[in-house]
Amino acid sequence: xxxxHPEALRDEGTTEGWVDVCAVEDIIPSTGVxxxxxxxxxxVVRVGExxxxxxxxxxxxxSKAFVLSRGIVGDKxxxxxxxxxxxxxxxxxxxxxxxxxxxxxxxxxxxxxRGGRVEVQAAAQPPDRRAG
Length: 132
Description:
This protein is mainly β. It contains no helices and 13 strands.
């Protein structure tokens, strides 16, 4: 089982359950998809050919549009990232931290792969208050 948690949630218990989103193979390597989890649009991003999966808010705080799942997936100095397709700001897929503006962060969500299926937990790391 492959499970990724934001640092802020690693040791916290949560009462919210896991939501089945899609099969890993439904996400083209090095791209993202958008999933509606409860009332939240979540960008689910697959890095490379394997099961390295991340989940963060689909909302781009710079363009004020729900587009991050359509961004460019890559790496910046060993940090897995996604760049907004609008103004190209990059976000650390692990933490949601904007790599171009340290005052901005988007919420990230616990994600795991079980039996080839991607599951996301609805509880998010709180966004940085300056994220807007």
